[in-house]
Amino acid sequence: MTSDSISKPDRAGGILGWIERGGNRLPDPVVIFLYCIAAVIAVSVVAAAMGLYALHPTQVDAAGNALAIRAESLLSADNIRHLLVDMPATFTGFHPLGYVLVVMLGAGVAERSGLLGAAMSAAVSNVPKLLLTPAVALVGMLGNLAADAAYVVLIPLAGVIFAAAGRHPIAGIAAAFAGVSGGFSANLLPGQLDALLFGITEAAAETILPAWDANIAGNAYFIIAMTLLFLPVIWYITDRVIEPRLTPLGAGGEDANAILKDPDVGISDCERAGLKWAGWTVLAVVALWVALCIAPGTPLIDESAPAEGRFTPLFQSLVAAFFVVFLAAGWAYGAAAGTIRNHRDLIAMMQSAMGDMAYYLVLAFAAAHFVAMFNWSNLGLIFAIHGAAVLESSSLPDSLLMASIIIFGAVLNLFIGSASAKWALLAPVLVPMLMLVGISPEMSTAAYRVGDSATNIITPLMPYFPLVLVFAQRWQKEFGLGSLVATMLPYSIFLLLAGLLLTVFWVYAGLPLGPAAPVSFTMP
C-alpha cells in the first residue's frame, strides 16, 4: 500500500471532511481534561464569590434543615493543599483504574497467548454460507472482550472468509466492523468496558449517595438484549443493503486469487488442542465461583444482609472472576498450543499487557484529577440538583430523557472517540442529576453506551478507522474514506435507531438492566 493511497482520503469534503478536519483540530483527550480542569478552577472561583449553592435532597444540618451545598473555590488554601498533598491518593483512588488494570492483567495473557484470535478464527471459519453474516457479526460483538484483537484479527479475516465463500470481501469487512465497533457495547457477558464505565459511574453516584457501590453486571441484561437486537440489523443491512450495492472487484487491489492462496483461515491442531483445554478451564472457573456461592459459609453470598444486598459480594467479585477466567484460560491455551512454555512467558505477557495500558494511565491521571476537583468544588452536585429541578418541572418522560442522552453521546462520539474520556466528562453531572429524578445510575450508563457505540463506525477519528480502510483497500484500491463512511452509514443509522427503540421500551417496561439493577431509583 502506497502512502498516496492512504493519505488521499484525508482530502474528503462535505460533512465528512468537516468532521475530520474539526476533530483533528481537537487536542488529545488528556489535554482536553487539563483544559477542563482549568475551566473548573475558573468557574469555581466565580461561583464561590457569587455564593452559589443548592439544598441537598437527603442530608440535613444540625437544626434539621436541608443541608446547603455551597460552591467551593479550588484556589482556596484547603483545596490547594488537598490537590498537592493527596495527588497520589487521588490517582490511585480513581475507581476505574483498579477495575481495568486487574481485568487487563488476565486479558493480556488471553490475547498474547493466541487464545482470543484462535477462538474468533474457529468461530467463523467453518460457518455455512447462509449464516456467514450473522456469525461474523456475533463474533464481532463478542470479540469486544478481546479488545484490540477483534479489530486486527476478525475484520481482515472476515474479508477473506467472505471471498472464499464467493461473496464480496468488503461486505465481510463491513459486517465485522459493524459488529466489533458499531456493537461495541453489545455482548453476552460483561467485560472490560463494564468495569471501566461503572467505575466512573460509581465515582459520580457517590457524590449524592456515598454508599452506592458499582456492580459491573449492572447492564448485563441490557447488553444481551442489544446483542440479540443488533444481530438481525447487521445481518439485514449487510445482505440486503450493502453487498448488492458494492462495486465488483476490479483492478487496483491485490489479486483476490493471490490473497486466497494463503487465506490463513481455520486453526491448526495445536490451536485446536489449546482451545479444548481453555474451554475446560473456563468451565472449572465457573464451577469454582458457583461453589463459592453455595458452599458452607458462602463466601460470595452475604446471608446476614437484607434480601436486596445478599448478592453484593458476588457482583463485586466479578472483576476478579474475569481476571481469573482470562488468565487461567489463556495459560491453559498457551501451554497446549506452545505459545507459553514456562511461567516466565506468562509473566512477560502480563507485563506486555500493562505496557499497552501506558496511555490509559496517563489519561486516568488527568481524568482522576478532573473528577476529584469537580467534586471538591461541589459544582457537579449543585448543577445536578438544579438540573434535576428543571427536569422535574419539564415533566419530560424518562424515555425521552434517555433518548436525548443517546443522541448527545452519538454526536459527541464523532469528535471524541474514547468511551471512558467522554463518560468521565459527562457522568459527574448526568448521573447524580438523573438519580434525583428517579433514574438509576445503571440506566444512565446504559443510555450512554448506546450512543457511544452507534457512531464509532462513521467517524474518521476512531483510532482503528484508518486500519479498516487499509483492509478494504487490500481488495479494492480505489475504496477511499468516503466509500468506507458511505458503506458504514446505514449500519450507524439503524443501530442508533434500534438502540433508541430498545432503550425507550426498556424504560417504559421498567425491566431490570442486570442483577439488582433497576431502571428507576429512589433516594433512601
Q: What is the helix tally? A: 24
Instruction: Kindly report the average pLDDT value.
Output: 84
| Tally of strands | 2
Q: Largest sheet, order of strands side by side? A: 1-2
Radius of gyration, whole Å: 24 Å
Structural domain tally = 1
- H/E topology pattern: HHHEEHHHHHHHHHHHHHHHHHHHHH
Shape: globular
Contiguous runs where pLDDT drops below 50 for at least 5 residues: 1-12
- Main beta sheet: strand number and arrangement? 2 strands, antiparallel
Question: Between the first and last Cα atoms, what is the distance in angstroms?
Answer: 61 Å
Structural class: mainly alpha
In short:
With about 525 residues, this protein is an all-alpha fold. It is about 70% helix and about 0% strand. It has helices spanning about 5, 15-25, 30-50, 75-85, 85-90, 95-110, 115-125, 130-140, 150-165, 170-180, 190-205, 220-240, 255-260, 270-295, 310-315, 320-335, 345-355, 360-375, 380-395, 400-415, 420-435, 440-455, 465-475, 480-510; strands at about 55-60, 65-70.
